[in-house]
Amino acid sequence: MRIMGLDFGSKTVGVAISDPLLITAQGIEIIRRKEENKLRRTLARIEELIEEYQVGEIVLGLPKNMNDTLGVRAELTMEFKDKLERRTGLPVHTWDERLTTVAADKTMIEAGIRRENRKEFVDKIAAVLILQGFLDCAGQGEK
Fold this sequence. Notes:
With 143 residues, the chain is α/β, with parallel strands linked by helices. 45% of the residues lie in helices and 24% in strands.
């Protein structure tokens, strides 16, 4: 069994998958959509990846505000969580994703990725950071 990590954005979903031992996270793709409310194809692609990678759980980044409140983006994420649970039948955990996009951007800067190319990778790297944080915490018995 593997765990899938998702970074849900207004027009993209970054996807990461754990290794079978649940130690490391690897980014696999960014699912793109033309309109924010159009989720049918996004959910279908997630289902395909769940089957392909034998996923048993999902971790979904929850974009909390810096003061720990939930804003509009977090509310949309919780609606997406409900859709994922209904459609896949898998447990979906939320994970505080504050500053993951900042960390992803910093990682790309350190890797020498040019500014104009960073947008192409940021969601996938953010998904990796979300999933890796969850895996690290779960490995310490704090799931």
